[in-house]
Design goal:
- The complex is a heterodimer.
- In chain A, 35% of the residues lie in helices and 17% in strands.
- By secondary structure, chain A is α/β, with parallel strands linked by helices.
- Chain A folds into 2 domains: 315 residues, HypD, alpha/beta domain 2 (Rossmann fold); 44 residues, no CATH class.
- Chain A has a 5-stranded parallel beta sheet. A 4-stranded parallel beta sheet of chain A has the order 4-3-5-6, with helices on both faces. In chain A, strands 10-13 form a two-stranded antiparallel sheet.
- In chain A, helix 1 packs parallel to helix 11, helix 2 runs parallel beside helix 15 and helix 7 packs across helix 12.
- The C terminus of chain A is likely disordered.
- By secondary structure, chain B is of the alpha+beta class.
- Chain B has a 7-stranded mixed beta sheet with strand order 8-10-7-11-9-12-13.
- The mean pLDDT of chain B is 93.
- The chains are: A alpha/beta, B alpha+beta.
- At the A-B interface, helix 1 and helix 15 of A face helix 8 and strand 13 of B.
Amino acid sequence: MKYIDEFRDGEKAGHMARLIHRQVREGRSYRLMEFCGGHTHAIFRYGLVDLLPREIELIHGPGCPVCVLPVARLDMAIELARRPEVILCTYGDMLRVPASDGTSLLKVRAEGGDVRMLYSPLDVLDVARDNLERQVVFFAIGFETTTPPTALLLRQADQLGLTNLSVFCNHVLTPAAMHAILSEDGPLHLDGFIGPAHVSTVIGSQAYEAFPAQYGKPVVIAGFEPLDVLQAILLLVGQLNAGRAEVENQFTRAVTPQGNLKARHLMDEVFTPRDSFEWRGLGSLPASALCLRPGLAHLDAEQRFTFSSGQSRENKACECPAILRGRKKPSECRLFGNPCTPETPQGSCMVSAEGACAAYYGHGRYRTRGPLLAKG
Amino acid sequence: MARLNIKKGHVEMMHGSGGKASQDLLQQIFLPLFDNPWLDQGNDQAVFDLPPGRVVMATDGYVVSPLFFPGGDIGSLAVHGTVNDLAMAGARPCYLSAGFILEEGFPLADLHRLVASMAAAAKKAGTPIITGDTKVVEKGKGDGVFITTSGVGVVPGGRKLSGDQARPGDAILVSGSIGDHGITLLSLRESLGFETEICSDSQALHRLVEVMLEASPGLRLLRDPTRGGLATCLNELARQSDVGMQIDENQLPIRETVRAACEILGLDPLYSANEGKLVAICPAEEAPALLQAMRRHPQGEDAAIIGQVTRDPQNLVQMRTGFGGQRVIDWLQGDQLPRIC
C-alpha cells in the first residue's frame, strides 16, 4: 500500500532504532507519554517496545475517548436508550463500556432498547428522516478529531429543520487534559509528550506551544504509523539530551501550525466550551469540553430530555483513573487479566482497542506473564 | 399445480403450510434445480449407502447478509461451508441436507437464483442435496432466507486429523490469502458505501485436502478459519493442542485490496472471515513437500508456511511483526462485524 508501507518498513525501523540506542545516555531515563490511544495501539500492534532501549519508558496517556468518559455520562446515555421513543446512535466502541451496575449499551439493546452503531455521524440524518415518529439521539464522544463531524451533523440537522434529532454532546479538548496531567501535585513523572496525530490535524501544532513554555516539556507531534512513533521518540531524546523543550512536528505530511481552519470555524460556530467537565481519572477540569451554543439548544439532548439524578458507581478496585494519568501500568491493577479482560471489561481502558489495558492485554501480555493472567 | 410466477412472485405464508402451495414451491424451484434420484423419490428422508470408512457428520446455519455478494451467495456458501467442515476431518464429503427458513415476501426470483447457485455448488463439489425442508415465517420475523445444511462424509481408514494433535516444532501453513470473505461482505454494507475489487473466497476445499494428505502423510490437523478469522482459528488450535504458536507477519498472504480496506476501516485482516481457506499443521520435515503440493493445486496457489508450533503453557499465539517487534494475537473479542456466514 503506497504511503502506508513506507511507514511500516522493518529495515528503516531497525535503522531508526539503532539511532535511538546510540543517542540515549546511560543512567538517565526518558519517560515519554504518548497522549493518544492511537499511538498506544500502534506501539503494541507493531511491538515497538522490543526495538527500544531500556532507558526509554513509554507512559500511556488519556487520549482514548471511551476511556475518559465518566460512568455518570454513560449512565445518562443508557437512560436515554431505555426510553421507548428513543433511537440512540453511537460509535461501536461505546457499546460494550461498563456503566453502573455492570450494564452497557449492548445489554440495553438486548433488553429491547434501540441502540444503533454507526461509522459516520451524518448517518444519523438518515435514521432521523426514516423514523420521524421517534426521537433520534446521537451520543457524541471524542476529542477534536470527531468533533467537526458532529458539528456538521448539527448544522445540517438545523438547516433541515429535523425536530426529532438531538445530540448528547461529550466532546472533550486535548490541551485541557495535557494541562491537567502536567499540573498534578507531586513530582512530575514524565519528560515529554508524543503529541496527537489526528487531533493535531484539526487544532494545529500551535495549540501545544504552552507546554514547553509553561512546563518546560517538549512535545513532538507524531503520526500513527510505527516509524512516525520511532522518529518522534528520536526527536524527543534529542531535545531532552540538548536540554531543549519545543514543539516539533514530525507529522508534517498532515499537520500545519494552524490546523484545519475550516473545521475549527465549524466547531466554533456550533460549540462553546463548558465551564467544567468531569473526566474519568482526571477529575473536573475547567473549559475542557464542549456543549452546543445557545442558538442550537433545540438540538441539545441535555435540554430536550430530563435525566434522573441516580448515583453512578464505578468499580472501586479499577485502576483506570491512575492508568489514565500515567501513574500506573495496566499490569499493576489487580483486576487486570482476572476478571478484567476485553471480554469482561471492568473498566473503560479495557474496552476500546485504544485503551491502554486492552492494548496490554490484547497484544503485549507475553511480557507480563504470571499468575495474574487467567488462562484463555 | 398452480404455476409460480418466478419472475415477479413472492414467498407467501401458504408456501410453508405443507399443503399444495408447498408442493408447488418444491416442484417448480427446488426439485428441478437440485435434480437427484433421492429427492425425486418424494420421501421425507433419503436412504443411501456410504463407502467404507468412519462416517463424519457436520451441520452449519447460514444467515449471511447481504444474501448475494461478489464471489458467491448464501446458497453456494451453505454448500461450501458444510463441505469444508467435513473435509477438515480428512473426510470425503458424500451427501448434504438443506433446511430453508424463508421470510414471507421474499422474491421468488431471488430464491430461484440462490437455489440454482446452491445446486451448481453441490454439483461441482460432488455432494448432492438429498433431503431437505422448507418453512415460511411471517414478514419481519426473518431476513429473507436462512439456510441450514448438514453433511455426511467418510474418512478412509488410516486418516486421523484432529485439532488436538499439534506438537511443538510443527509447521503452520495457510492455503491462500486471508480475510477476503469478511472484507467483501463488510464493503457491501450500505453504511460503508465503498467499492472494492475483492470477492469472497467461498469454495469447497475437499479436493485440495486429498492432495495435501497424499503429500503429507503425517498431517496433524486441518481447520478452516471462518468466523473470527485466522487469529481466532490459531487460538482455538493452540488451546485444543495445549501449545503456543509463533507466526511471522511477513509470511502472511494478504491481498493488497484487503489490506487497504482494513486500513480504512481500522480492522485487522487476521480477524476477518474466510470461506475457502484452510490452516494446516504438519511435522516440520513434511512442510516443504506439503507446500509444494498445495501450490500446484488451483486452490492452494498462494499457500504459505506462516509459522511454527511452540511449547507454551499459556497457549499464546504470537506474531513477529513486519516491523521487527513481537505481539500477541488474541482471540476475537465481541462482535465487530456484520453477519458474514
